[in-house]
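Table S5 (text form). Sequence records supplied for joint modeling of the two-component complex.
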Amino acid sequence: MSERKYVGRPAAAVDGLDKIMGKAKFVGDYQLPGMLHTRVLRSPVPHARIVRLDVSPALAVPGVVAAITSEDFVGHSLWGWPIQDQYILAYRKVLYVGHGIAAVAAETPDAARAGIEAIELELEELPAVFDPAQALRPDAPQVPLESPTGQGNLCADIIVRYGEPDPILAESPVLYEEVFHTGRQEHAYLEPEAALAIPHPDGSVTVHYNGQSPFINQIHLCQVLGLPPEKVRVIQPVVGGSFGGKDDLGYQTSGQVAALALKAGRPVRLVLGREESMLASYKREPMSIRFRLGADAEGNLQAAKVEMLADSGCFSSQTTLAMLRASLHAAGAYRYQAVHVDTQAVYTNNGFSGAFRGFGNTDAAAAIEQAIDDLAHRLGRDPIDFRLQNCVRQGDRFMSGNVVSHEVRLAECLQWVRERSDWDRKRATFSAQSGELRRGIGVACYMHGSSLGGEGADYANTTLKIEDEYQITLTSGLTDYGQGSRTVFTLIAAETLGVSPERIHILRPDTDTALESGPTVASRSTMLGGNATRVAAEKLDRLLCYAAASALDCTPAQVARHGEVYVNPSEDEVSFEEVVDRAREMGLTLSVHGKWSMPHIEWHVESGTGTPYYCYTFGAQVAEVEVDVHTGQVRVLKVWAAHDGGTIVFPQGAYGQMYGGIAQGLGYGLLEEMTYDRGFPQALNYDEYLIPTSLDVPEIEATYIESDFPEGPYGAKNLAEPVLVATAPAIANAVFCATGVRHHRLPLTLERVLLGHELHPGRGETACRRALGFDQSKVEVIWQT
Amino acid sequence: MKIEFTLNGEPVHVEAPASITLLHLLREHLGLTGSKPGCEVGECGACSVMLDGRVVNSCQLLAPQVAGREVVTIEGIHAPGGGPNDLQLAFLEFGAVQCGYCTPGMVVAAEAFLARHPKPSRAEIREAISGNLCRCTGYQQIVDAVEATAARRRAQSEGRGQ
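The corresponding structure-token record, covering 947 residues in total, follows.
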């Protein structure tokens, strides 16, 4: 194969220039003359019946132009995927603190606030449930209006069935049984949710929303607005981070501004403040995970039984699918003879859970990687040796029973972090410490199923068109919210077409100009969108080759390339521009469409068997920590990380994903937990919900170990999510190495490390009410006694 | 009330409510949207601007407090011709930009720091940007970009000195 010019070479993010100059326009930066400002009335209680809701007094407030409730939508604004259990604005009941009830659009933000305060709302508080295990009891208050499973608060029941673990566990000489708990993590994207709707004379509406999946947004908007797709256009502006987090609340926000804009006949914008965002938005689901692991006397893992319980909060959102992924990764990247997983997701009145980078595997890997470490310790084995002995290799079976069909370089990843971190020497040194500050070093590894797998139809579309000035316009139905896919697609198109990346201009994702490509989730962009781009570029390249052959008076097979120049065997040359001109003279249409679909696989949810993902990525990380045994403070000194994700297309972006993922994993492992006290979130801003700063994140030494994956675009797989999942357990295992204490619960806050349990501040209710503006409004809550 | 100060090297006279923050004065009255609201409690640094050469959170200052003083925003940071300067280009070169929402504040904070610390260690750079939260990058490539810019500026000034 000839040397690659763009794929895998240094490149700058194609949308970086506007960002470094402060010129990139986020939704909050738009200024349209006549644009109205929105405010949403949100619930001050976790569970209540809406007795009376009258927005007409709001319309009497000077400056208020329009007001809406669930009655202003089709079907009371019911929507949701895969389970329809949400409303754009609450219908009949409010289910969590922060639940949107009504919205107004006004000339100024102050008038919108006054409008909200004028709304007459009477709530009758209902008994609420906050503990997932209690929510499953038959006498628990039911959270959803209708139970999707017909079993009260049970929103999903997921199984994995590979072999029969019970008889094996009964015979196993080594049996490990333990429960782990993970915390509720806030996405904390720097830009909160924001949407702008512009109505048009034909009754159609354009929505600019800073989310991930404009086509999914369009489907929901069409449903609740009762409009056909041609009357709802969704454009993705520049997005200030998402990490899975701007789906559901964003679809609600989009629906609210769209309905208000259609009612008012003017542009309407809603920009959430930080407190409103933290109150109303969904989080990573907290889980409890119970393991029974069996090994033989030589330390070979034999069987696993895993039971998981997830708090979905008041909506199912993506928790059901995240729990499918959690279940399919629950026993980790190891070889077993049999595995059963039983997972339940449960409704409660604790806000709601949804998609977050790692999508179930973050939690699952955090638990199994601590369990494996614990088991290795009990067996007196080195944690890396134990993992190398048991980790999956090509030809083995995954924990879900399907065969490992592609090359796996997990063992190489483990070896790399072992050598680079000076693991063996440090493990020996750290085993005998007694001072106040104790060092520890820990490891974790992972597998991560690529793309959607059994979660949905898996394809992507790209179009390419050569414009009059010889620029090439690229559209993709997949979107970039910071992860770098626009650059990846540009580099793949440039490589395939043999043109400079500067020629290629990628349009903003837009339901009017791009082709639907499913959701931008599951780290699927590089493989799916990259392949669609490669397919489109190969088509366009072939067309240009006919034109070049015509211009050079040779056969297409004889055309060679020197950069953008086309050359025939006689060394005659024509430029890219001349070839394009010739193609046009020949009557060729220089626009193409490429589609790529994942090879077909089947996972059977009813039987818990099949092949859940076509391929997987793998990796390992080591963390070194220093624990202050007098304060409980854990400082991460360094992280080493290796990921097997196939070919790396955009190295700066790929390493940025790795470092950023590790920072988020560090937060998940040490700092971040959104706790709820009787339904009230205990943190509303960055002064209370702490995410890692540049002083918390250590220097990271990382590498990509490129395995062979011929189906990927230039051999690329994926990386954005999996690079996060090993960090928290690696840190927890390092803390265990330093202190000899296993905590079984993340994050490892000071209190947990020092005392073994958390402290309850219990101060959230007043702060939540103040943030929601309930110190002044006319809401009447009939408190249940 | 009338507020007069120097903004990105130019005098400005603007009529605005006395209670408005500098951030909102910049964004809503002066059309400069490069400074971002991220938390409005002075924690995230997305609204960072330079006030008399020092980095401040513009969400925590009332606009009248800058009267007679010198404010530099991201819109005032560029090469002489208006294009990106060396630090901004280094952000691109080292992959220090992902979603871009923290980037203007990060560039402002780094410029203010580099003006006073021409030879910083990586630890000092981390300290200098610790008031600016980034959720995407894990900070490492931002530190790389600032470190490389400092080294290049030193090399350039040494070159000029010879």
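Note: Strands of chain B lie at 2-7, 10-15, 48-51, 54-57, 70-72.
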